[in-house]
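Session log. Operator J.P. requested a structure for one protein chain; no other inputs attached. Running the standard single-chain path with C-alpha cell output.
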Amino acid sequence: MRSESDVDHPLLTLSEATEVLRIGRSLGYQLAREYLASGGTAGLPVIRLGSQCLRVPHWALMELATTGRVVRLCDAPAPIDEVTVDH
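Structure written below.
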C-alpha cells in the first residue's frame, strides 16, 4: 500500500501508476510498451532510465487520469516548481 508521500513523488513505478489507475500490472506494462512503440501518441506515458527501468511522471499520469490526454513527454514542457538552476 502506498503512503501519502509516494503520491507526491515526481516519478512513480509502473506498479504505483497502475494502482492509481486501478488497472492490473500486465495491462500497465502493455500500455507502457504501446507508449514507447507509438512514439508517445498512445498508451501510458513512461520514461526509460537505463535499459530496464521504466518510470511514470506523476504529472503526466494525472493528466491522463483526469483528461484522458496522453502526454508526449519529449514535446511537453516540464512543470517546474521552485527549481533553481546554477550555471
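Operator note: The chain is about 40% helix and 10% strand.
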